[in-house]
């Protein structure tokens, strides 16, 4: 990530005349820490950014961006429930302001929290309701995020079904289809981390289906993606 630090340093060295530019640089720095799995640092940067936005009376788009990102950092850190209140506030604000792409992303964050609470059916219904409208935004990262949430919901419902039942098989099949869609969207934006996560989940499903050959195939593709990226 040395290259990322170098680029950020160059951006910060530029004249700070445009507040929007400084905001975007701050968001990029948070994303860099997320890529490093340094969630404590990412949250600290976000807290600082949100305080600055309060002082500057920033526009609602910037506030929503920071709020949703905070909820997603909690999710990636393995503590999604800590982002519950901020995700709900973001969804409410986005709805009132009619900023639909951010509304769908905030709803996705709420879905992740429902999954952490084992409310899988509620999460699936939520994702199925927003995905058709979210796809109209033509935002690959957003679509991948929501399809990944949908896949996790279906996997959770499969886990609550008895082994060997038709219901369990159907839920796993739906989870696979959602993972494939998420993988496609991540591939379009060359998100290596997202591609690897989806492939790892596919391998898990193959193991649950007692299909070691396909599971190994998914594991091999996972390694191929990492190797091609130089990770």
Brief descriptors of the model:
11 helices, globular, single chain, 0% strand, 231 residues, mainly alpha, 82% helix
Question: Any overview of this molecule?
Answer:
The chain is an all-alpha fold and 231 residues long. 82% of the residues lie in helices and 0% in strands. The longest helix has 23 residues, at 166-188.
Condensed summary:
With 231 residues, the chain is mostly helical. It has helices at 2-13, 19-35, 39-56, 60-76, 84-97, 100-116, 120-135, 140-159, 166-188, 192-208, 212-229.
Please write out the topology.
Layout lengths: L1 H12 L5 H17 L3 H18 L3 H17 L7 H14 L2 H17 L3 H16 L4 H20 L6 H23 L3 H17 L3 H18 L2
Helix pairs in contact: 1-2, 2-3, 3-4, 4-5, 4-6, 5-6, 6-7, 6-8, 7-8, 8-9, 9-10, 10-11
The major pleated sheet works out as: none
Q: Terminal Cα separation, in Å?
A: 11 Å
**Assembly state of the chains shown:** single chain
Please estimate the helix content: over 70%
| Backbone structural class | mainly alpha
Overall geometric form: globular
The unreliable regions are: none
Helix and strand succession? HHHHHHHHHHH
């Amino acid at each position: 990530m040395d290259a990322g630090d170098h680029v950020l340093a160059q951006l910060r060295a530029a004249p700070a005349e445009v507040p929007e530019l400084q905001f975007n640089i701050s968001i990029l720095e948070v994303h860099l820490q997320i890529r490093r799995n340094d969630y404590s640092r990412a949250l600290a940067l976000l807290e600082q950014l949100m305080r600055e936005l309060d002082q500057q009376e920033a526009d609602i788009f910037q506030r929503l961006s920071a709020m949703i990102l905070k909820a997603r950092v909690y999710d990636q850190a393995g503590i999604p429930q800590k982002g519950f209140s901020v995700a709900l506030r973001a969804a409410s604000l986005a709805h009132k302001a009619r900023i639909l792409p951010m509304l769908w992303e905030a709803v996705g964050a709420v879905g992740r929290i429902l999954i952490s609470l084992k409310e899988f059916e509620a999460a699936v219904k939520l994702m199925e309701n927003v995905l058709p409208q979210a796809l109209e935004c033509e935002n690959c990262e957003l679509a991948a995020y929501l399809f990944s949430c949908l896949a996790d919901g279906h996997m959770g419902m499969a886990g609550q079904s008895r082994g060997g039942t038709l219901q369990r098989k159907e839920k796993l099949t739906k989870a696979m289809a959602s993972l494939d869609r998420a993988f496609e969207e991540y591939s379009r934006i060359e998100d290596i981390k997202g591609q690897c996560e989806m492939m790892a989940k596919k391998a898990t499903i193959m193991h649950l289906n007692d299909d070691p050959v396909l599971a190994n195939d998914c594991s091999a593709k996972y390694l191929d993606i990492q190797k091609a990226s130089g990770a």
